[in-house]
Q: What sequence folds into this?
């Protein structure tokens, strides 16, 4: 594995599919950061997160339904042959209904992990734990294996190590000590969804050694990116070219994926349930206050000058949230702008103009 | 096409308007007496709230009503001006616009915001946003997606029952009320009778000619939306059943010459009842809607909390797609349906997202033709009358050919 | 002398200013398909109108949709340019509403002229000049006839659709029913005004309010929008060149900053 495989993995994650097939590694396709990778690794499979890249949105669902969900659906249908099974999470309405549609359209087994939306309720934690046991049984059945006793503890350690490494990448950019540019940092984290989990840490550390260097960011406008699941690395490149740097984010495919670790003591399933349910919630889940706090925390820790809310055009959870996020930011004097799109690649010029305007607005300090 | 005698709405249905006004008046009376008001999403434990002396008010029903009466635009615009995107559920934009306008109209301001996530995730988001504006205590319950019939007896049911118990404790502490099991049993019993009556009425729509059409069923559901557990609901349905029985006896249908029997899949287009009339004028009647049937659910008064929990879990949108398709197919046969109108509702992604797939399956399995209509259930700005009527004409023509 | 070029999707505008920031000449030409050509023509026209010498040009800034496709010393975004120009001309302005051929925007500036918030409608034709273009085609009138007809209207029709495609069928329906074209036009102006009002409401209106952009030349539309907002707006003499003027001011400021930094 060459060490800039992380770059290739982000541009074309599908290249890895053939690699896994040839290596006879069973793949489980999954949709969301609520799905514990630890369980998948513990049954000897690789978790492979399905992005909306290279997809034509599926016509199986109306055009006012989230294009991101429709594209993920389309990819799952197109790439079915590579996977042993699919695991989806009940988060927002489109992703929930993608499970319904997939069930009718696909031959491989599909599982819906019911993630309770009231994440702070103790009863929800109990329920979620039972769901994880149900998931474990599904994985065992789909792959025809039994999860070994200490496999789960091992996989927790692997994932914790990877998450810590990702968090260090972020924290290494604190206090004006900016050594990894935001575009590469985003790619390094993103590649974690597709690279072999056991090898991820070594690959990333090697890659970092090549381009880690102290950079002067005085003239750059510091941005916090708020949103859900973003896979498009060109957006990050554009922001860089336009004079901005993303110092922090609260993306599902960014900081919220790795910010918290799983307790390594005690019952592994309970520890996993706690970490996944109680981390900063996705926009689809409650309580909203927890996310608002996380955003405030990130902005102050990484000294962001402004917040860019990036959302798919029909992302209901984020569209409700953005009203409150912006109200909070207005009260604390932090400028914000919303950028929405249906097809990011096609609309890149228009999106660029908006971002450019915002960066210029922040840059003209007076 | 022969033109029909002007179709009429049932006598009992006409009483719904007064029933609604009485209900809002009572809600305000209770508010002024210092009794707690809960804003609820539908398919929450209404019976339990009445047993706790909490008055339920449903912003979804409020939005439907405002839309039907041409009062919704101001509220939609208020929400949109506050930054809520026009692509969001129109019920929610109406409710939020109402809250942002001071909540001083039909619905008294809430002392509790209660939702159980069953219909959609938007419930959670909408209720959170209401809590941000109205600063009332928020209780979010989760009704997990029912994956199979067996699931209704499993740990998802336990989870739901336990949350109901949490709600009781919460209400007792917050509003200084004492939960009375006997009262709840009474409410459950009344709710069950109302459901039983409504199911009997719906069953009579199998008769030819159909005695109760779309414009009736749209209004007649009201007592099972927020009045289940009260005598008012039971009395209304008793009266309605008597009238429908009478019509059946006299072989009186909603229209004289019933040429096509249709199913309507979706929430009604509240600002366009004209559309139903347009169908009826061309000999087409609606004999079945999953939406109308959804409100009835048989409860076992010997297991009150468990029954209510089952009702919350098993509401129409919250059961597995295979169960939904099975039900729909069964009804299409039972009601002898000639064609289905599929309402692709911009506001309701939870309903619309899998609709194309379900419609195709129905078409393949039962050879039932369908027509897709795109609009919004409550936002009158999203309705292309000419285009829709054009599509209806074409559809009825193809039914004619068969 | 400094140059600002606004390469808009419909029209390209060139504005020349002097050392004090005063406009000395300007020109508007259709953009066509070649922005480079259009910007050249616009500059040429602006120079020739007042016998100006290209050699006196110190710096140029490009803005607008095609800003990256034309020659200029640097680029800037429209929002910032409009704000700059607005503040220079009318320092009491706090809200700017710009309605162009293909998009509409609302901008809030503070008492120092700094942009504090903005909102854009850049994906939907309803609420832009394009909407009026499509509709006036259907009705069979020219764009510059719209304003006069608006003031002849006695009872404007109600256009309920927020979408251009649906609105088109409403207009056709009214025409076939024999409604007066002036009433339909006033109705259309009200419909765009509603759209823009909703868009701009999300960032709020603070007086003074300035209208800019090509569509602001349509006094009928201006009346609709003013009535909807409930505020009497400031209307520049030539609203279509405000953005290019802002680009020219940006050009001037780039030179003076350079000079301050000792070049």
A:
């Amino acid at each position: 594995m060459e060490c800039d495989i992380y770059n290739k993995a982000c541009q074309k994650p599908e290249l890895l599919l053939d690699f896994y097939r040839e290596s006879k590694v069973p793949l489980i396709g999954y949709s969301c950061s609520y799905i514990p990778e630890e369980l998948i690794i513990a049954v000897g499979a690789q978790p492979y997160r399905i992005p909306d890249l290279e997809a034509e949105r599926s016509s199986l669902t109306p055009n006012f339904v989230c294009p991101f969900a429709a594209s993920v659906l389309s990819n799952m249908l197109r790439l079915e042959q590579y996977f042993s099974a699919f695991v989806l999470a009940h988060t927002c309405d489109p992703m929930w209904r993608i499970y319904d549609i997939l069930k009718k359209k696909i031959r491989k087994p599909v599982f819906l992990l019911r993630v309770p939306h009231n994440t702070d309720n103790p009863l929800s934690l109990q329920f979620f734990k039972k769901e994880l046991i149900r998931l474990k049984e599904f994985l065992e059945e789909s792959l025809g294996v039994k999860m070994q006793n200490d496999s789960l503890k091992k996989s927790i350690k692997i994932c914790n190590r990877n998450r810590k490494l990702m968090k260090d990448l972020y924290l290494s950019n604190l206090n004006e000590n900016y050594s990894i540019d935001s575009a590469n940092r985003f790619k390094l984290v993103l590649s974690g969804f597709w690279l072999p989990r056991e090898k991820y840490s070594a690959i990333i550390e090697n890659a970092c050694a090549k381009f880690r260097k102290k950079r002067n960011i005085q003239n750059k406008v510091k941005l916090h990116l708020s949103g859900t699941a973003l896979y498009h690395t060109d957006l990050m490149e554009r922001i860089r070219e336009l004079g901005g740097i993303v110092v922090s984010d609260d993306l599902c495919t960014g900081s919220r994926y790795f910010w918290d670790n799983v307790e390594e003591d005690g019952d592994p399933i309970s520890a996993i349930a706690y970490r996944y349910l109680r981390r900063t919630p996705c926009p689809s889940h409650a309580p909203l206050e927890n996310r608002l706090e996380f955003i405030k925390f990130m902005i102050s820790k990484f000294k962001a000058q402004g917040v860019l809310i990036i959302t798919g055009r029909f992302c209901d959870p984020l569209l409700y949230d953005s009203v409150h996020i912006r109200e909070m930011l207005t009260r604390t004097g932090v400028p914000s702008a919303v950028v929405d799109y249906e097809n990011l690649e096609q609309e890149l010029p228009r999106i660029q103009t908006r971002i450019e305007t915002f960066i210029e607005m922040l840059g003209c300090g007076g | 096409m022969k033109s029909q005698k002007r179709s009429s709405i049932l006598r009992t249905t006409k009483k719904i308007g007064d029933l609604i006004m009485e209900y809002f008046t009572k809600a305000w009376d209770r508010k002024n007496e210092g009794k707690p008001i809960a804003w609820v999403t539908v398919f929450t434990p209404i019976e339990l709230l009445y047993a706790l002396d909490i008055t339920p008010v449903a912003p979804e029903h409020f939005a439907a009503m405002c839309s039907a009466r041409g009062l919704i635009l101001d509220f939609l615009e208020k929400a949109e001006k506050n930054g809520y995107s026009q692509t969001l559920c129109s019920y929610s934009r109406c409710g939020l616009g109402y809250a942002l306008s001071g909540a001083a109209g039909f619905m008294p301001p809430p002392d509790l915001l209660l939702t159980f996530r069953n219909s959609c995730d938007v419930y959670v988001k909408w209720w959170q946003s209401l809590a941000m504006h109205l600063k009332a205590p928020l209780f979010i319950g989760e009704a997990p997606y029912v994956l199979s019939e067996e699931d209704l007896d499993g740990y998802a049911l336990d989870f739901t029952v336990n949350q109901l118990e949490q709600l009781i404790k919460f209400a007792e502490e917050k509003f200084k009320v004492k939960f009375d099991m006997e009262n709840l049993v009474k409410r459950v019993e009344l709710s069950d009778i109302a459901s039983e009556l409504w199911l009997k009425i719906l069953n009579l729509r199998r008769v030819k000619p159909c005695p109760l059409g779309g414009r009736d069923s749209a209004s007649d559901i009201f007592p099972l939306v927020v009045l289940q557990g009260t005598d008012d609901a039971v009395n209304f349905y008793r009266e309605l059943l008597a009238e429908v029985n009478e019509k059946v006896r006299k072989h009186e249908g909603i229209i004289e010459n019933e040429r096509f029997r249709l199913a309507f899949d979706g929430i009604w287009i509240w600002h366009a009842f004209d559309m139903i009339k347009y169908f009826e004028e061309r000999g087409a009647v609606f004999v079945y809607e999953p939406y109308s049937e959804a409100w009835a659910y048989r409860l076992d008064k010997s297991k009150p909390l468990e029954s209510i929990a089952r009702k919350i879990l098993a509401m129409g949108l919250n059961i597995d797609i295979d169960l939904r398709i099975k039900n729909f197919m069964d009804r299409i046969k039972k009601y002898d349906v000639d064609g289905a109108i599929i309402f692709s509702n911009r506001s309701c992604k939870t309903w619309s997202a899998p609709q194309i797939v379900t419609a195709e399956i129905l078409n393949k399995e039962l050879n039932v033709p369908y027509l897709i209509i795109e609009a919004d259930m409550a936002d009158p700005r999203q309705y292309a009358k000419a285009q829709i009527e054009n599509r209806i004409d074409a559809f009825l023509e193809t039914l004619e050919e068969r | 002398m400094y140059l600002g070029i606004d390469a808009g999707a419909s029209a390209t505008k060139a504005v020349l200013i002097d050392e004090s920031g005063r406009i000395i000449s300007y020109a508007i030409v259709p953009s066509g398909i070649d922005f480079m050509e259009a910007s050249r023509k616009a500059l040429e026209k602006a120079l020739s109108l007042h016998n100006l010498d290209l050699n006196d040009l110190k710096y140029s800034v490009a803005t607008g949709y095609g800003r990256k496709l034309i020659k200029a010393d640097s680029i800037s975004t429209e929002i910032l340019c409009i704000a700059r120009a607005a503040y220079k001309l009318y320092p009491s302005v706090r809200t700017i509403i710009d309605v162009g051929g293909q998009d509409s925007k609302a901008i809030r500036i503070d008492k120092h002229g700094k942009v504090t918030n903005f909102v854009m409608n850049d994906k939907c034709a309803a609420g832009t000049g394009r909407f009026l273009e499509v509709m006036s085609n259907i009705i069979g009138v020219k764009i510059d006839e719209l304003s006069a007809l608006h003031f002849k209207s006695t009872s404007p029709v109600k256009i309920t659709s927020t979408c251009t495609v649906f609105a088109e069928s409403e207009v056709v329906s009214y025409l076939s029913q024999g409604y007066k074209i002036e009433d339909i036009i006033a109705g259309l102006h009200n419909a765009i005004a509603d759209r823009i009002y909703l868009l701009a409401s999300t960032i709020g209106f603070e007086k003074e309010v300035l209208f800019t952009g090509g569509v602001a030349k349509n006094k009928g539309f201006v009346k609709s929008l003013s009535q909807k907002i409930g505020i009497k707006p400031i209307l520049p003499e030539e609203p279509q060149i405000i953005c290019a003027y802002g680009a020219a001011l940006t050009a001037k400021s780039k030179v003076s900053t350079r000079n301050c930094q000792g070049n």
